[in-house]
Amino acid sequence: MKQFFSRKVAKSQSYKVLLSIIFSLLSFLSFSQEIDTTKTKNLGEVMVQAIRANDKTPVTFSNFTKKEFAKRNLGQDIPILMNFLPSVVTTSDAGAGIGYTGIRVRGSDATRVNVTINGIPYNDSESHGTFWVNMPDFASSVESIQLQRGVGTSTNGAGAFGASLNLLTENSNTKAGGEISNSFGSFNTGKHSVKFNTGLMNNHFEISGRLSKIYSDGYIDRAFSDLKSYFLQGSFINKTTKIKALVFGGTEKTYQAYYGIDAETLSKDRKSNSIGGFTDEFGNSRFYDNETDNYQQDHYQLHWNESISKNWNTNLAFHYTKGKGYYENYKEDAKFVDYNLTPLGTSTTTDLIRQKWLDNDFYGTTFSVNYKNEKLDFIFGGSANKYEGLHYGKVIWARLASTSELGDHYYDDYGIKTDVNFFAKANYQIIDKLNLFADLQSRKVNYKANGVLPTFIDESFNFFNPKAGLTFSPNDKNNIYFSFAVANREPKRDDYENKNVKPEKLNDFELGWRFANQKIKLNANGYYMQYKDQLVLTGAINDVGTPIAQNSGESYRIGLEIDSKIQFSDKWSIQPNIAISESKNNDFYFERDGILQNLGKTNISFSPQIIAGNILTFSPLKPLQISLLSKFVGEQFMGNIDAEGSKLNDYFINDLNITYEIETKKIFKSIVISVLANNILNKEYISNGYFFTYNDDFSNPGTIKTIEGAGYYPQATANILAGITLKF
């Protein structure tokens, strides 16, 4: 249960009552004027315009549309679907892209990628992590994704230190329809989903929904995933008002694989998984069947947009997320005293089964006001959110008897966090072809927590994050931009285990060129990201698989990114991208053999110098598309001391994606057949791992020797997914 102490979500609550109240209110508004589609903005555009970038915004971004990711949406998580975007590296604990998956952008891990859904923060408040396993098949309910690399524009939630990722759920449909999708594949993988939409009813209302189930045994031994999810959305639209209510969520049960394997095991059995292993009373080696993570997360969102005039519109949203779940595991030779247990005999240890629980609530509001005329596009917005989380553990079984009650809590901890931010951003046309962008954000954070920490936490942070830039558009095909942005970010819960942890600061410089005509789209940008007290991953993980970070003092990332799409003809297209970068710690200190050493300039962990991707598409017939997807990730270090034993080798993988759509005239609109063959060259590769050091002073008394070790997360060799979707 990777990063379990930074997780979330809970028992489901009834959304029927909520929707009935909302739609009763909307019915009261139905006297409003009929819709004028020529004057009404797309609801989705209004919901995210406060935080999304466009061609006049001087930031680096990529848009990923529903049409693009639907071709490969056969059960794998959203990070895996994004694998071929620039500067992106993805990984999967179970090896097959289902269950616990992760994403890195420009070398920054997922806790440093700000994620919002319809402008609502999704990152966990305490860990800053994003756990897509809690929202299986969410891609089936997403209209578009925008990935802003670097600091980007002001958004809601934790500061973006590598990228910000905004997801927009599906737009309203004017016509009724639905889908039935089923896919099957390697590792006993299956995905089954049903979607519907009513179309626009009574010229004002639309309801859509989805139910999904995904199952996979995983590539790694016993790393199964059993996932279920739902999505329900109601919309009301008239000439000046747009209201959208959503409830969505999921439940997950996953057998864990967060320890990876060492080099020796990798050479013998790359699918091995040690988690859950124990020795029974007869001396037999066994695995505990329920070494699992069990979690449920339910989201509620209400968005209200009002077009006051042709120049003014407003957006107001309320949200609530409930999360509850536990991680269960078998613990050998546990000390009675550590679990508040009193033994009946003389033994001080016992085997036991424990559960570590989270019970979390996250709620708040976001808002924005937009004024736009021919020269000025101004937005004032912000958010106020609160997180309340309980952390507790209990023993549900023990081999040796005790006088204590099983099920009693052996720890009770909490975390409470408030996050308030205000921003004002403007894009102003100074002269013809030249636009000035300015963006000012003030953010106040208060965090209180106790638990597995050296001290009680009660900290407040006041961050000011200014951004500014210029965009020059010499003609309708080209624009050149430059921007400077400042970001500040508070430590996450686990960072406080390091006693002197500090907040981070980033100065981000971006220079780019965008070109587009009917056949070619080209983006090229250079960046320089200058950090103060960056919390870099040490490479080590804690006892529940959470990566450990520490302040690095001064560090930087500098790089060049190029991506394009070239349409050679009606049948052939290509989408290459490449990122070349250097990521360094300055004056990095490390204690080796008991002596503190200045290692000087070292590579930042998990930051490959080269990342390249390509999608080559051939469409011999209009309904048939054949795509070869290629990804190269260069050599990288898993730690910050440039140790040879911390290297991850480079890898080059290729996937083959085939889709064929049959348009029918009866029963169904169309039938879509999809095949995704992953890693077709059967490459044995590793996309993630961990590296640790410790001091050994036992082998030779009086001396201290630094010992190094590493673990690896192997990814699946050749495998296949195939599916059929019936659209009606």
Tell me about this structure.
By secondary structure, the chain is mainly β. It has one domain: Maltoporin, Chain A (Beta Barrel), CATH 2.40.170. Helix content is 5%, strand content 56%. The protein contains five helices and 40 strands. It has a 22-stranded antiparallel β-barrel. Strand 15 and strand 16 (312-335) form a beta hairpin. The longest helix is centred in the first third of the chain and has 13 residues, at 16-28.
Strand and helix map with partners:
Blueprint: H1 16-28, H2 43-48, E1 60-65, H3 66-70, H4 78-81, E2 88-92, E3 101-105, E4 113-117, E5 120-121, E6 142-149, E7 163-169, E8 177-185, E9 189-197, E10 205-216, E11 225-237, E12 241-255, H5 263-268, E13 277-279, E14 285-287, E15 292-307, E16 312-335, E17 349-372, E18 376-398, E19 409-431, E20 434-449, E21 457-472, E22 478-489, E23 504-516, E24 520-532, E25 535-541, E26 547-551, E27 554-567, E28 572-585, E29 589-592, E30 595-598, E31 602-603, E32 610-618, E33 624-633, E34 636-637, E35 647-648, E36 651-663, E37 670-678, E38 686-696, E39 705-714, E40 719-727
Parallel strand pairs: 4-7
Antiparallel strand pairs: 1-6, 2-3, 4-5, 6-7, 8-9, 8-40, 9-10, 10-11, 11-12, 12-15, 13-14, 15-16, 16-17, 17-18, 18-19, 19-20, 20-21, 21-22, 22-23, 23-24, 24-27, 25-26, 27-28, 28-31, 28-32, 29-30, 32-33, 33-36, 34-35, 36-37, 37-40, 38-39
